[in-house]
Amino acid sequence: MNTHDTPIRVDHVGIAVESIEDAEPILLALGCERLSVETVEERFRWAYYRLGDASRLELIEPIADDTFLTDFLDRHGPGLHHVTLEVANIDSVIESLREHGIRVIDRTEFDTWTEAFVSPRNPTGALFQLMEYHDDYHENRRPPRELFVNGRRVGEGVRE
């Protein structure tokens, strides 16, 4: 069924919470190490954690009153929000998904990454975030060995 040869892997699991401060002690007790905290467009904040040598978790909290995250928390409460898949070529993966009738929404290019989402209206019920990190993603953040699974972007050195 796969019609692309693009390297892909699980980057992190996103967990929606009312408060990062309240939820973080659970992750720290599990042995997680906080890597970064960032605010996006004054709408929500995310904190990124490493667990072991290759696992990543993310806590996301709303900081504005009317966002996709407040809607999610109102409907479902805290819990699993999304699974992020790091891809080496997001457009190839999107094309493959669409060829198989899978709905991809909200493709957005940011300064240091490009993302799109597989609608949760699929047989898994999961929201998948597709993420392609740009070469400069790590600038003004921790070094690549700490940010990326196994220290490198997926497919690094394999790109055309």
Please provide a written account of the structure.
An 8-stranded mixed beta sheet has the order 2-3-4-1-5-8-7-6. The chain has 160 residues and is of the alpha+beta class.
Q: Can you give me a brief rundown of this structure?
A:
The protein has helices at 20-30, 68-76, 90-99, 144-147, and strands at residues 8-16, 33-40, 44-51, 55-62, 79-87, 104-109, 113-118, 128-133. By secondary structure, the chain is of the alpha+beta class.
Task: Annotate the secondary structure layout.
Blueprint: E1 8-16, H1 20-30, E2 33-40, E3 44-51, E4 55-62, H2 68-76, E5 79-87, H3 90-99, E6 104-109, E7 113-118, E8 128-133, H4 144-147
Parallel strand pairs: 1-4, 5-8
Antiparallel strand pairs: 1-5, 2-3, 3-4, 6-7, 7-8
Descriptive terms for the model:
eight-stranded mixed beta sheet, 8 strands, alpha+beta
Structural class: alpha+beta
Q: Indicate the mean pLDDT.
A: 91
User: Which segments are poorly predicted (pLDDT under 50) over 5 or more consecutive residues?
Assistant: none
Shape: globular
Q: Give the strand order of the largest sheet, numbering strands 1, 2, ... along the chain.
A: 2-3-4-1-5-8-7-6
Name the helicity range: 10-25%
In total, the number of strands is 8
Cα(first) to Cα(last) distance is 23 Å
Report the total helices. 4
Tell me about the largest β-sheet.
8 strands, mixed
Helix/strand order: EHEEEHEHEEEH
Gyration radius, rounded: 16 Å
Beta-strand fraction estimate? 35-45%
